[in-house]
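Final report, closing paragraph on structural work. Over the funding period we assembled a curated collection of sequence-structure pairs, and we close with a single example.
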Amino acid sequence: MRWLIGALAVIALAWLTYVVSPYWTAASFAADVRRGDVLAAAARVNFHALRLSFAKQFLSEGLGAGEIGDALSSADVQIAAGTIAVAADPLLEPLLSARGVVDLLRETPAGEDGPGRASVLERLMRFLAASRWRGFRNVYFALPPDRAAEEQVRLQFRLSRLQWRLVSIDLPAATRKRIAERVLRLKAPKTR
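Its predicted structure, as stored:
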């Protein structure tokens, strides 16, 4: 009987570790970003997946809800996103470096309250409420939790090789537009 109780305790501990681990990773990642610790933050990012995520976002932003965007199948969008990721790589490289990711997340609203405005428990409850599990390997965090969906940044963490890594940052449309304009301004040929 003791072995059964021991086995159940081990299973319960493993399950609890699995359920808590993405929240721990996201909180640690947020602390690294706040501190500006580029190396620690970069260790929690899958840059290849993030590059594809940004390519898809800028592709959908460019296509919009027009007839071309509606005519493309999901597979076509994935192929186009991969092509755009390769073509736009030099333009998006500053954004997709470790420093670029940290700077991007530092300039987006984090939803932090001022000192003493919300208890640790209240902030924790909002953080938990802002998360959504998709299957067993994907957790999304919508931040700041008290804003409308079109003003939120969605971070997607995926479990891979027993580690949770950031694979997608879904930006609000206004932020995507601002970044696209800034990138195009930086890369535009200078005329006299």
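Residues 63-72, 111-116 have pLDDT under 50 and may be disordered. The chain is about 60% helix and 15% strand. We thank the funder for supporting this effort.
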